[in-house]
Amino acid sequence: MDLEFVGRVFVKMLPALPRTLLITVLPFAAALFLGLTATLPIVYDVPILKPLCKLYVSFFRGTPFIGQLFMIYFGLPRLVAGLASMGKIEGFMLTLALNSGAYMSEIIRGAFLAVDRGQIEAAKSINLTRMQTLRLIVIPQAVPVAVPGIVNNLIDAIKGSSLAFTIGILDITAVAKIQAGITFRYFEAYMSMVIMYWLIVLALEQLQKRCEDKLKSASV
Q1: How far apart are CA 55 and CA 63, in angstroms?
Q2: Distance from C-alpha of 38 to C-alpha of 34, rounded to nearest angstrom
Q3: Could you tell me the sign of the dihedral formed by the alpha carbons of 101, 106, 107, 111, in that order?
Q4: Residues 111-154: pLDDT tens digits?
Q5: Would you say the pTM of this structure is higher than 0.85?
Q6: Band of the pLDDT at 72, cuts 50, 70, 90?
Q7: What element of type H or E holds 128?
Q8: Residue 163 DSSP class
């Protein structure tokens, strides 16, 4: 294995790193909001909205991401005239947000269900509204439970961003693929790509550990 070539490819991928992070972090932020929005009607049994939210979660968790990406980027603009000008990056970020939002919904729902029902009943007994109960009791206790799942979802989103090259986005995977095709050094090129993703994930794991430590110290 030519380690010098691995290093050269690694350097060539660095300019594409901000784009990779952009198409991951922004959709992930949207997925947090979308996941919470989809969870509340399910947890609180809101008529009409609950089955729609469950259908959304089931569809995007039960179908392959690559199929969703092609359906949304290539197919949706043909059905919705307003999306005809949708670009590659916008199409990918929309797909990733919808996909991650479905998984986020299940993570948040599990965290909500982990909160002691007795405390929720006690909140009702002192006439707290549903929103007050959510803000003062449920969310503060659900966040520490949800953090590991949320970070794992972000890690999955980072790794899933490697499929952006399939619709022509020049991310770090695309750069590695180009270098492999030019030089025929497939092992070294993809090894460099894998190392970069690994370093990103290691950084996220450290961020997760710090968040969990802060939450533990805050709860003491």
Answers
A1: 12
A2: 6
A3: positive
A4: 888 888 888 788 778 877 778 888 888 888 888 888 889 999 99
A5: yes
A6: very high
A7: none
A8: G
The distance in angstroms from the start CA to the end CA of the chain is 51
Q: What is the pLDDT of residue 71?
A: 93
Q: Left (φ > 0), alpha (ψ -120 to 50) or beta: where does 128 sit?
A: beta
| Whether pLDDT at 90 is above 60 | yes
Structure-block tokens of residue 36: 């919470």
Residue 1 clears pLDDT 80, i.e. is over it:
no
Paired tokens of 16 = 């594409």
What is the pLDDT at residue 219?
A: 59
Query: CA torsion sign, 87 to 93 to 96 to 97?
Result: negative
Q: Which residue has the tokens 């095709």?
A: 181
Read off the DSSP letter of residue 80.
-
List the one residue out of 142, 161, 165, 141 whose CA is nearest residue 204: 161
Q: How many CA atoms lie within 13 A of 206 on its CB side?
A: 6
Alpha-carbon gap, residue 73 to 95, rounded angstroms? 8
Separation CA 131–CA 155 (nearest Å):
31
Please report, as a single letter, which amino acid is at residue 41: P
What DSSP character marks residue 6?
H
